[in-house]
Amino acid sequence: MLKSEVFESVKEIVELLDEKEGMDISVIDMENSEIMVDYFIIVSGNSDTHMAALRDEVVRYLKDENIPILSYDKSSGYDWMIVDAGTFIVHIFSQEGRSFYDLESLWGEQKKIENII
């Protein structure tokens, strides 16, 4: 996938998460980090059910677009779930989990993409 195609998929996922009322959606450009991923998409859900719905929407989108899924959390009841598409990773947090793990601060030296939608 070209970087522009990856970014377009990231934008579409952010729009889907927003439509599903995902909270505090942020995107971090990870290209200059030491890990091999282009973007982190970070979103919070307000309950286990909401987090699972956000995950399911992302997985459905990736399958519909024939974007390979390397792995994803298939169960619920966690404070942090991921959907790993290789070139980007979607992090779905409970509000408590997001505050505890604080990925935005951990990767604070990376560029945060503003106003993606």
UniProtKB/TrEMBL annotation:
UniProt key word Cytoplasm: yes
One Gene Ontology term from the biological process aspect of the record: negative regulation of translation
A GO cellular-component term linked to this record: cytoplasm
Keyword Repressor: yes
Location relative to the cell: Cytoplasm
Any one Gene Ontology molecular-function term assigned to this protein's record: ribosomal large subunit binding
Keywords: Cytoplasm, Repressor, Translation regulation
Transmembrane segments: none
Role, per record: Functions as a ribosomal silencing factor. Interacts with ribosomal protein uL14 (rplN), blocking formation of intersubunit bridge B8. Prevents association of the 30S and 50S ribosomal subunits and the formation of functional ribosomes, thus repressing translation.
Similarity comment: family membership: Belongs to the Iojap/RsfS family.
Subunit structure: Interacts with ribosomal protein uL14 (rplN).
NCBIfam families cross-referenced by the UniProt entry: rsfS_iojap_ybeB
Protein name: Ribosomal silencing factor RsfS
Annotated source species: Defluviitoga tunisiensis
